[in-house]
Amino acid sequence: MNPAGAGVPPEAPPGPGWRAILGSVAAVLLCCFAFQLAQGVLSPVITVQLVGHQTATGLIGIVSSIYFVGFIAGTLHSQRVIDRVGHIRALGVFAVVAADAALLFALFDPPWTWLLWRAALGYALAGIFVVVESWLNDKAATSTRGTVFGLYQVVSWGTGIVAPLGMNLADPMGPVLLIVAAIAFATALVPVALTRVGNPEVGQRSRFGLRRLIAISPLGVATCFASGLVNSAFFGLMPVYTDAVGIGTENLSLILAVATIAGTVMAVPVGMLADRFGRRPVLLAGLAIAGAASVAALRMDTGGLVVMAIVAFVFTLGAGQAYTLGVAQTNDYVTGRDFVAASGGLLCAWAVGASIGAAIGAQAMTLAGADGLFFYELIILVALGLFTVYRMIRRPGRPGAAGPKGAA
User: Are the C-beta atoms of 209 and 202 separated by less than 8 Å?
Assistant: First the structure.
């Protein structure tokens, strides 16, 4: 019996083909591309403009961190909006708030009012993510959930490669890129508004917090939280690490690009493997790969661009899909009426981890030097790996295509 009392879906039939899978989620993925493009342009522009206005470093950090305050608030409140008006109209609300925030950055000089716009942006993006992820869960069967979320990650990681190039289209200190981001947020509504695929029914949806979600899938929640811890520290502190080991910040873009490519190319294969062999074995393999990359980084005597690029590639190869696997693991054990609440809870767990991951990693680097980053990463990876093994022993699972069996 599910410990949270949630119903367990019946055993899934054989999964549909690629055409059916893409047809059911194409509009949502196009929406995801548009708002990820907007966010990918907006985030670096905000930081560049803060620096250009000679904002104190501490205040820049506060503006960056306030985003997660808004994001966490959005994960907690967005369910009410979705339950009230449905997925498509809720997406309209959140997209308009995001577009307004982008335009307000252009209308007001930093830094103080930007705290408000940054928090509003975090709130709106959290709402968009909850809409998108609960929609994808509604359209995915147990036998295809890993693949569907793999496609979602391809769009997310792939946009992360393309979006920063938008910085070259106009002066980042001017208003043009902020306006472009607002246009992209508004454009995200178009494919969803025109889709013939019905959005998830509002119906009677359940509401619950992290405590019940942990009871449903402790490993799923732990994986999303750990993903925030690990990846926010890796991407947030890589500039500090490359400078400390002598690689130089001029090579940073190459290393980050290689890492992002790894996350992109592995998203669908990992999802398909998880559908076939189960979420937990694939997660454990990924953690082992990322752990091996962390050990390799710790054994590097001197900085080397090629070696560091390989380490970054392998690390993201292993750790980059942890969030997707955590989401798939959890949603295998809930019913359709729980998808919105589950998506909000998992995003909240990720956001809490992401909001503190870089700060903890930075403290580790203060205590242990550059190696502190990968000591920190290794500790989190090993801890999650051990917990995964514990859950596998505690409750043997079956491959995702076979359908869920008990909490995990």
Answer: no
Nearest in space to 226 (alpha carbons), one of 344, 335, 386: 386
pLDDT for res 406: 43
The tokens for 98 are: 């995001």
Question: Both tokens of residue 271?
Answer: 């999802």
Tell me the residue length of the chain: 408
HSE-CB of 408 using CA atoms within 13 angstroms: 30
Q: What is the pLDDT of residues 209-239, one digit of tens each?
A: 778 888 888 999 999 999 999 998 898 888 7
21-200 and 208-408: identical CATH topology: yes
DSSP summary character for residue 149: H
Domain 21-200: what homologous superfamily?
Answer: MFS general substrate transporter like domains (1.20.1250.20)
Distance CA(358)–CA(30), nearest Å, equals 30
Backbone φ/ψ region at 401: left (φ over 0), alpha (ψ -120 to 50), beta: alpha
Dihedral (CA of 341, 342, 343, 349) sign: positive
Topology of the domain covering 208-408:
Growth Hormone; Chain: A; (1.20.1250)
Say if residue 366 is exposed, middle or buried (CB neighbours under 10 Å; 0-12, 13-18, 19+): exposed
Residues 249 and 251: their CA atoms lie apart, in Å, by: 5
DSSP secondary structure code for residue 170 in this structure: S
| Predicted structure pTM score | 0.81
- Closest by Cα among 7, 1, 394 to 218: 394
Residue 315's SS3 state is helix
DSSP 395: S
Give the helix/strand (H/E) hosting 339.
helix 339-368
